Amino acid sequence: MTxxxxxPAREPRVGTGGLFRSDVRTDWTREEIxxxxxxxxxxxxxxxAEVHRRHHRPDEVQLCTLLSIKTGGCPEDCGYCSQSVKxxxxxxxxxxxxxxxxxxxxxxxxxxxxxxFCMGAAWRNPKDRDMxxxxxxxxxVREMGMETCMTLGMLSETQAAQLAEAGLDYYNxxxxxxxxxxxxxxxxxxxxxxxxxxxxxxxxxxxVCSGGIVGMGETRGDRVGFIHALATLERHPESVPVNxxxxxxxxxxxxxxxxxxxxxxxxxxxxxxxxxxxxTMPRSMVRLSAGRESMSEAAQALCFMAGANSIFTGDRLxxxxxxxxxxxxxxxxRLGLRPMEAxxxxxxxxxxxxx
Length: 355
Ligand code: SAM
Ligand code: DTB
Ligand code: SF4
Known about the structure:
The chain has 355 residues and is an alpha/beta fold. Helix content is 38%, strand content 13%. The protein has 12 helices and 10 strands. It has helices spanning 30-38, 41-55, 99-111, 131-143, 157-166, 179-185, 191-204, 220-231, 252-258, 267-280, 297-305, 325-335, and strands at residues 60-70, 116-121, 147-151, 170-172, 207-209, 212-214, 239-244, 285-288, 310-313, 338-339. Strands 1, 2, 3, 4, 5, 6, 7, 8, 9 and 10 form a 10-stranded parallel beta sheet that branches. The relative contact order is 0.18. Residues 1-20 and 344-355 have low confidence and may be disordered. Bound molecules: S-adenosylmethionine (SAM), 6-(5-methyl-2-OXO-imidazolidin-4-yl)-hexanoic acid and iron/sulfur cluster (SF4). Residues 74, 76, 78, 81, 83-84, 122, 153 line the site of iron/sulfur cluster. S-adenosylmethionine binds at residues 80-81, 120, 122-123, 151, 153, 173-174, 176, 212-213, 243, 245-246, 248, 290, 318.
């Protein structure tokens, strides 16, 4: 228990009521989002913090744990990913983990205070023969009282329905970057296919988790396009992960950026992206995802100020290192943050993000 956990709630959460619905819009224009990015930094931060307070408790951050349930050997060619067969990253391909081993890992995460357990597989799409094990994992983790999230690649309509039936709370499927830039990062699938799977997930009634990566050498215009694509979906994703690229040796982007002076995204520009996500998608959880390892505590504090309210805990993401529980407990104590309590997750058919 950290000091931060003992701080009492100051005010009821207003994010689930009908209040302030008027600032949830899905008709954002690129010009409006570009104008947000162009604001003086302190003004942008102030506006984002204001929106954040209207919809969320500003001293609470959700703790999520990631587990790679099937690592490496992925046929897709995502330029950032250590798990692509095209990458020479040294990541070894494994088979899908046994259900019991996954549940053991979930129990550890729960005991460490995690409220959401996210399971990721290095697949283009799950095979139907994998679905019974996947379903058993979802059911088992849910029974432990944690929210469940899966990220398995593209889904068929039937698979999405099976996951919904199993009680899956969230499905993560990132759009990663702007529609214009997508083809430069990934050639084995299209931006439209990504949007199609998100639509299947919505239709099945599973909450949507979709975001992307900043720091892949994109322009600010691409960052605007990325936020615009999410903020103009028919309904906003309930969860929006904003990753800072973890440059991994042997991946196209990791190697390319290692050779350029632009290697790491400027912290201020990263915070601007978080703020733009918060302002345009007020009710969504904005997740400060990969890349915290290389961010200062001050930069992370600015992200929380700008509306990030979810992080990955533990010392590993999927294949890359993460800050670790001790470092996060110290960070929370230093910043006066406390872990968010789990709520009965709103299913997408009841939630009102983006309406
Ligand atoms: N294979 C599935 C898919 O791509 O949808 C699920 C797993 S995939 C690793 C999940 C997400 O992790 C990607 O969409 C990407 O946004 C993020 N990611 C992967 N490698 C990353 C890296 N090196 N740095 C930052 N984010 C990364
Ligand atoms: C997301 O947007 N970020 C997480 C989660 N969704 C699955 C994954 C981050 C992966 C970072 C690189 C790695 O561990 O290999
Ligand atoms: Fe495969 Fe997902 Fe990595 Fe792309 S991001 S190579 S789909 S594991």
